[in-house]
Design brief:
The chain is of the alpha+beta class and about 800 residues long. The chain contains 20 helices and 40 strands. Helix 6 packs antiparallel against helix 9 and helix 19 packs across helix 20.
Length: about 800
């Protein structure tokens, strides 16, 4: 956003120096890209230094000069100026420049010698004449600097980088408002629209308006205008803002857009068929030639302003050639509207057409200032182009328009978020000067430290909550006035252990690929019996909901019901978990015991026609070992103190005897895991065998085991010694029991022990099994030798023989 400094000063109660203006806007969070002089036609004229002069071989009055313009290699320029000397600094018009008076500078040959630029006199720079010949610059002029900067030519222009959340600063009034708040003793001066009598009938009538795409649309007629070039002050102001002057009417619409941030458009009434304007979706495939001469193909997603026959304007983006204002225009229909930002953004991007209008509409213009901008534009057109207002205001608005959002603002939020106590009078000064309406809360007698705040139209796009208002206070109070301090250390009450475990269990199960389900705590005895659970101590409901007459005593029936439902929906692979409670009566009385569980169920089947089935070893199993692995992962992640182990069980009717186990921590039963009992799998229409399994962990018990203390142990710099040990034992001996013995007998040298093989068959006596263990030995202070390891290996073998009857397999 480029704006002349003089324009901003017109909107302030007292003039502000350009440097102070730049610094004030920077303080309140706006990025200033530059403060520069604007001199039309001198954009590519720079300071050069003559570094060599030579005679022209074929012309006595010409000289060949080598000129440093700050780009590296000197430029060769042939000049007839006799007043330039070696080391002089002069204005150099580079190739491509168009000097005042439309004098174009091109590469040329002068009497056979190439020349790449021209030295400039004051007259050639568009300035009053001085000495004859090329203008000589001061010695301290910076080589390569723009000549407008070096000679302080043109008007000072402020270049502000406006972020997408501050569309209000895409206007002179918006920037002036920020300056009026930031600079003490300064206030905003808004131009006022005139109240004019309206005569006659409007030359254009408003037809249908799509209120979703254009919540507000307004227009008014002006007759008898004379199209002519704009006055010099208006041309310079537009050029200073980076826009091109066209004619007095179009220039006024652009001027008011830059002033207020509200785009406007003027139609030539004579070119509007049927003298009716409609705002509607474009028809699919409808075309429109825009002002840049390009035919645009539109879709139903685009919005157009149309007469009775065809589209005239791509709404919010660019006008069409068919109704543009030109030298023949005498009667105008002047429009202003609020178009939905999302729609303008989509159209602009699809067409690849970004304009000053679309840039503002897609960020959100002030919905409360549309009519104000329209009236200012009308007044200036009447002043510069003549004519008379005709007919009344034509407008269409959606119900409840314009919006004026209101919310509560508590003053204590300022100190909480900024870390500094801003005095209440200063808070009120800042917010009121920025346009917010404040209504102090009271209890009927005393004022409270809170307000009802109504957001002005120019800030409704980015101020939506208390924190946004705190930011406004902080910006203008001054971030540099906020002292540096460390955040306070707040001692928070520790979470109950069971809440910590629940959160960890949920996170671990989710990371393991399981989906969380939430099922009802109400069930029926019949449903639990189907899952193999026969419970004599149900908690019964006084007012049961149909068959749901008791509280569940286990999560398993609910989890299996979820598996069944998903199988009926065609799901063949599923892993679920639930954090939920079970309920049962205890003792002789009516006391209810609640237990918090994390439980899960797995199902893995394949589509029979799937080609992969025959080629995948052990395809897609959800067997005991998979479920056991999930339980191990959960218990390890919960970090409870104690050693995890498993013990075969046949006490859970839901699970397959021989393929299920109790989960123990330090010998205490805390859960179950196993494959589904075939009878239960059949009852729920689930796959049997290794294709369905379930598990439960009692978080209520695990919460009573404190987290394991983390102890640091440095990595050993010495290599490990690996040994394998294969023994024969009764096939009824659990492998875990042997691992416990191995770890105990291994002492400090044994770093790790794991089961890697289980074999039954040939070469193994009947009723026995071969178990292979991998042992890792390591010391922290030396490399172990055979003499170090062998005694420990023998001790392990002896303990295995003593306790479990194990013999070394040959």
């Amino acid at each position: 956003m480029r704006l002349p400094v003089s324009w901003l000063n017109e909107l302030l109660s007292k003039p502000v120096e350009p440097i102070e203006m730049r610094d004030a806007l920077t303080r309140v969070g706006l990025e200033i890209e530059g403060l520069e002089s604007h001199a039309p036609g001198l954009e590519t004229v720079v300071v050069g230094k003559i570094v060599a002069i030579g005679a022209h071989p074929d012309a006595d009055k010409l000289r060949i000069c080598q000129t440093d313009v700050g780009t590296g290699e000197p430029l060769q320029i042939v000049t007839g100026a006799q007043n330039v000397q070696l080391n002089d600094k002069i204005p150099v018009a580079l190739v491509g420049s168009v000097l005042p008076g439309n004098k174009a500078i091109n590469a040329a040959k002068l009497r056979g010698v190439e020349s790449f630029g021209m030295y400039c006199s004051l007259v050639e720079l568009g300035l009053p004449p001085g000495i004859d010949g090329v203008h000589i610059l001061p010695e301290d002029a910076s080589i390569g600097a723009p000549i407008a900067q070096a000679m302080s030519l043109g008007e000072l222009v402020l270049d502000v980088a406006v972020t997408a959340n501050r569309p209000d600063c895409l206007s002179a009034i918006g920037l002036a408002r920020e300056l009026a708040v930031a600079i003490p003793g300064t206030s905003l001066k808004l131009p006022q629209a005139k109240v004019l009598p309206l005569t006659g009938e409007s030359p254009v009538h408003l037809g249908s308006v799509d209120a979703e795409r254009a919540p507000y649309y307004a227009g008014l007629g002006i007759s008898g205008v004379k199209i002519a070039p704009s006055p010099e002050w208006l041309v310079k102001r537009l050029e200073g803002a980076g826009m091109r002057a066209i004619n007095n009417v179009v220039d006024v619409t652009n001027y008011v857009m830059l002033l207020t941030g509200q785009p406007l458009h003027a139609f030539d009434v004579a070119k509007i068929h049927g003298r009716t304007i409609n705002v509607r979706p474009a028809s699919a495939g409808e075309t429109l030639v825009t002002l840049d001469g390009v035919e645009r193909k539109l879709t139903a997603e685009d919005t157009v302003i149309a007469d009775g026959d065809r589209a005239l304007v791509v709404a919010g983006v660019m006008g069409g050639k068919d109704a543009e204002v030109d030298e023949s225009s005498t009667d105008l229909f002047l429009e202003a509207a609020y178009f939905k930002p999302q729609g303008v953004r989509m159209t602009s991007r699809r067409l690849g057409l970004s304009t000053e209008s679309s840039y503002r509409f897609e960020r959100g213009v002030d919905p409360q200032a549309t009519l104000y901008a329209l009236e200012l534009c009308r007044d200036l057109i009447l002043e510069l182009a003549g004519g008379n207002p005709v007919g009344g205001l034509q407008e269409a608005r959606r119900q409840g328009w314009p919006p004026a959002p209101t919310f509560t603002f508590r003053l204590d939020q300022i100190e909480r978020l900024l870390g500094v106590n801003v005095p209440n009078p200063e808070v009120e000064r800042i917010l009121k000067a920025l346009g917010f309406q404040l209504a102090r809360h009271t209890d009927g007698v005393f004022e409270l430290n809170s307000y009802d705040v109504t957001v002005p139209g120019w800030r409704i796009h980015d101020v939506k909550r208390e924190a946004d208002l705190v930011e406004e206070v902080g910006r203008h109070y001054g971030y540099d006035r906020i002292p540096a301090s460390l955040p306070p250390v707040v001692k928070r009450p520790s979470q109950p252990a069971i809440d910590v475990l629940s959160a960890r269990a949920r996170a671990i199960a989710t990371r393991s690929g399981l989906s969380e389900v939430v099922t009802s705590s109400l069930t029926s005895p019949q449903a639990e019996a189907t899952a193999g659970i026969k419970h004599a101590k149900h908690v019964r409901l006084a007012n049961p909901l149909g068959d749901l007459s008791v509280m569940r005593s286990s999560l398993l029936p609910s989890l299996l019901e979820v598996l069944r439902y998903n199988r009926y929906q065609g799901q063949s692979r599923l892993g679920i978990f639930e954090l939920g409670r079970s309920y049962e009566l205890t003792g002789e009385g009516e006391n209810t015991q609640e237990t918090l569980w994390v439980g899960g169920a797995l199902m893995a089947t394949v589509w029979e026609g799937m080609w992969l089935v025959e080629h995948t070893p052990a395809p897609l199993k959800a067997d005991f070992y998979y479920a056991k692995g999930l339980v191990e992962l959960l218990v390890e992640g919960l970090e409870v103190e104690g050693r995890l182990s498993f013990r075969e069980t046949d006490q859970c009717p839901t699970l397959h005897p021989g393929r299920s186990a109790e989960v123990l921590v330090d010998g205490e039963v805390v859960g179950l895991v196993g494959e589904l009992h075939p009878r239960v799998a059949e009852a729920y229409d689930l796959p049997s065998g290794a294709a369905a399994s379930a598990w439960l962990l009692d978080l209520s018990k695990l919460a009573k085991k404190p987290p394991e203390r983390v102890r640091f142990q440095p990595f050993s710099r010495f290599p490990a010694t690996l040994r394998d040990l294969a023994v024969l034992v009764s096939n009824e001996t659990p492998a875990n029991a042997l691992l416990d013995t191995i770890r105990e007998a291994g002492g400090e040298l044994l770093e790790r022990a794991a089961l890697f093989d289980r074999y039954e068959g040939a070469q193994v006596p009947e009723g026995h099994v071969s178990l292979g263990f991998s042992l890792v030995y390591r010391a922290g202070d030396r490399t172990l030798s055979v003499e170090d390891v062998e005694p420990t290996q023998q001790r392990i073998l002896e303990r295995l023989k003593e306790r479990h009857g194990a013999t070394l397999r040959g």
